[in-house]
Amino acid sequence: METKITIRADAPGVTIDPNIYGQFVEHLGRGVYEGIWVGEHSKIPNVRGIRSDVVAALRKIRVPLVRWPGGCFAELYHWHDGVGPRDQRPRGINAAWNDEPETNAFGTNEFMDFVEQIGAKPFLAVNVTSGSPGEAQAWLQYLTGPEESAAGKLRASHGRRQPYQIPFIGIGNETWGCGGNMTAEYYSDIYRQYLAVLRPYSTLIVADANSDDYAWTEKILQKALFRHAEPTPLAYINRSPQIGMMSIHYYTLAGNDWSNKGAAVGFPEREWALAVERAHKMDEIIAKHSAIIDKVDPERRIGLSINEWGTWWTAPKDAPSNLYQQNTLRDAVIAGLTLNIFQNHAERVRMANVAQMVNVLQSMILTRGSQMIVTPTYHVFDLYQVHQSGSLLPAEVTGPDYTFDNVTLPAISASASRDSKGAIHVSIVNLDPNRAARVVTQVQGARARQATGRILTADSMDARPDFDRPDRVMPVPLQGIRVSDRSIDVTVPAKSVVVLELR
Ligand code: AHR
Fold first, then answer.
1. What tens digit of pLDDT does each residue of 208-255 get?
2. First to last CA, the chain
């Protein structure tokens, strides 16, 4: 039986926010040190200490946004340790991650230099557990203050005269867990305190609901939003919303057991099925959190950010650093499925940050000393960049399921958009690791005369590149596309990600 995709070019939806393609960088393992920062005196080619191979790879996929410095690390981080002459910065330990050494060599100005080098925007996570509203406010004054202000003078003395722009601030990280073990009620009060001092600077993002903890979202919206006792003359209060975005953290394991997440490589089909099933649940999680937000914000002013998402496998004993994992074709299929889900919820989902950018969890990039490879997940971000800022086109999919043991899911996931030049892009993921799908796409309201496509697939479920064979899983042109008056007919191989361009 064939799969049918019906695309409604006659019913375009919202613009897909490029920030859905955001990334997350935390001081953890070799995510920052070696992965991004090698220091100015390194033999690894770098610009002001930031490795050039990594910057070039990230520029190519147009990373829109980077969340930093954590994660759990953010809740222990004091920004003033990471500014000023590097040889005078305090050396510490990273208590969030096995007491790894923390040199503070990569601090605020290095991070801002990094995002400027890759052409992205910054998203800062401020410390609400061991920090204070005053410390966060001083950080924002340091970053954004005019050069003549005291904070701006300090920044200029550290080499940066021009103020930075900080479009997004996250108020804490996982405040139900490593971010202070708070109840939703208690955190709501803390949020209101930070709101009072940080509102003038940026869009504020509420700390993250844990997966399907819908009660968290419900309570925060009840408690953190409030009415001012009387009309205020303060312009910034009228201008910026109390809550810019709500947020969720949701990771994919092979199943739901955090003590047995499954291996990154060499796994059986059962773990493939459990992992894609868990990744697929992202759709329900977003829909249910969104329905709660809809009740207080039917006009959809408040966004939803998936502040952390990605695959998290059991680390082997010989992993070279904390939370380092291999990245295979399965990770790429999960990335494609997840990005399709985000896009199809673009009316509420305005941001997402894959965990994490380099050498940690579902990375874009892996390094080994001076060597660097890009992962299958990187290729999906590369293929999907055509959707950034496109108009979402509804895509209805009907077709066979993928079934294994107790897992039953639609085998094909799809999402479509139209870019500013009128080209329609359709991303199609075949979750079935065994069966190819014949996919017939019909476009309502537009005529497609030509179609081209690219595909990412491989023979085995855990196919992956390595440092000696960096090109082992690579996108290639899709062959055999048939375009007729009414439809585009393609064969989408088992376990693959395809992006079509229709003109
Ligand atoms: O991404 C790794 C960790 O996962 C982050 O520090 C934390 O926020 C989450 O639990």
1. 999 999 999 999 999 988 877 777 777 666 667 899 999 999 999 999
2. 27
